[in-house]
Design a protein that fits this description.
- The structure is a single chain.
- Helix content is 29%, strand content 26%.
- By secondary structure, it is α+β, with helices and mostly antiparallel strands.
- The chain folds into two domains: 2-44 and 143-212 and 296-355, 3-Layer(bba) Sandwich (FAD/NAD(P)-binding domain); 82-138 and 216-292, D-Amino Acid Oxidase, Chain A, domain 2.
- The strands form four sheets. Strands 6-7-5-15-16-17-14-18 form an eight-stranded mixed beta sheet, with helices on both faces. A six-stranded mixed beta sheet has the order 9-2-1-13-20-19.
- Helix 1 (10-21) runs parallel beside helix 5 (142-155).
- The longest helix has 20 residues, at 54-73.
- The protein is globular, with a radius of gyration of 21 Å.
Length: 356
């Protein structure tokens, strides 16, 4: 079975790996961006945190479990930090209510005191009187993780190409391949995992993928010795530390709205980090990014075949880092096995048909 995956971000990389692991003939077209564009600008928080209804919460729990499965499959090649998160807001009652609800669903989240918060994150200069601690959550270095998945896919036969898709080839009402600069590539299935470009690419073959993409701004420090154990989600900023020592910070988990002056905002975020850390004097800005988050119109993921256009499989979602391992496995099962998986039923593209 010949498959082409459009996109080399964390979703495309995961799908490519899982397809290759199932024996598919896989070509990944990264468009010159191995590791992706939206992926590179992700805060990269793995979670099923408060803010989602119960059914989507359950889906995200499965996604977290799949990351542990994928870690085992790749024998330690993925550097995932599973030290959890510490979260507090100015209105602690809001946090307490969310914690109570999610704890009743079985999420390992609970309110902790200053003493426990200090034990969990000793590197902070000050600790909240009350905070939520979740031991299940994690984070990863998104580009490095996508690269590791692409490398693993290549080792089992996938071809990784920097070519860019110019168009999807449609023959007789079916997708039969893609056109790139060097030429056409025939395929039994084309997987669209192109992030914010998915809507435009799909529209070329008459497939509607409703998107409400939004920007997200993050700042990154120069490498530092280990300071933070896990994620710190405070009212001022959301902060974590990469395995390479770099601290990633945004106004919220999605990166916040785009600032008018990006350099000034990045420096402001670094100043917040310096104030948050007990030994923050050496925190220096290295870079900042303004990325586009690929968000379906109703926020939930889109995963599945494009009804009415056989041969095209659409995968686009926000929280791509959280969902990548699960989405990759289930998409590969559907494509190679030829049978739809019930778990993905709520996330099909055709749910938008009633809006037309």
């Amino acid at each position: 079975m010949k498959t082409v995956v459009i996109g080399g971000g964390i979703i495309g990389a995961s799908i490519a790996y899982h397809l290759a692991a199932r024996g598919a003939d896989v070509t990944v077209l990264t468009g010159g961006n191995p590791g992706g564009i939206a992926t590179a600008a992700s805060f990269a928080w793995i979670n099923a945190a408060p803010g989602n209804p119960r059914d989507y919460f359950d889906f995200r729990i499965k996604a977290i479990e799949d990351w542990h499965r994928l870690e085992g499959d790749l024998n330690g090649r993925l550097a995932i930090n599973w030290n959890g998160s510490l979260w507090w807001e100015s209105d602690i009652a809001t946090v307490q209510a969310a914690v109570a609800e999610h704890a009743s669903w079985g999420y390992p989240i609970r309110m902790v005191s200053t003493t426990e918060a200090t034990e969990h994150e000793p590197g902070l200069a000050q600790h909240p009187e009350h905070a939520a601690l979740c031991t299940l959550e994690g984070s990863l270095s998104p580009v490095e993780t996508a690269a590791a998945l692409l490398e693993a896919a290549a080792e089992i036969g996938a071809r990784i190409s920097d070519d860019t898709v110019e168009s999807i080839i449609e023959t007789g009402g079916r997708v039969t391949g893609v056109q790139t600069g060097p030429g056409g590539i025939n395929a039994d299935h084309v997987v669209l995992a192109a992030g914010v470009a998915s809507e435009e690419i799909a529209a070329e073959v008459g497939v509607r993928v409703p998107m409400e993409n939004s920007p997200g701004f993050l700042a990154q420090s120069a490498p530092l010795p280990p300071i933070l154990r896990g994620l710190v989600l405070s009212p001022q900023a959301h902060v974590r530390q990469n395995s390479d020592g770099r601290i990633i910070v945004g106004e919220d988990f999605g990166g916040g709205k785009p600032p008018d002056n990006r350099d000034a905002m990045a420096e402001q975020l670094m100043a917040i980090v310096r104030g948050m850390l007990a030994d923050g004097k050496d925190v220096r800005l290295e870079s900042h990014s303004l990325g586009q988050r690929s968000i379906p119109a109703d926020v939930r993921p889109i995963i599945g075949p494009a009804i009415g256009m056989p041969g095209l499989y659409v995968t686009v979602m926000h929280s791509g880092v959280t969902l990548a391992a699960l989405a990759g496995r289930l998409a590969a099962e559907e494509i190679v096995g030829g049978q739809l998986v019930d778990t993905l039923a709520p996330y099909r593209l055709e749910r938008f048909d009633s809006e037309v």
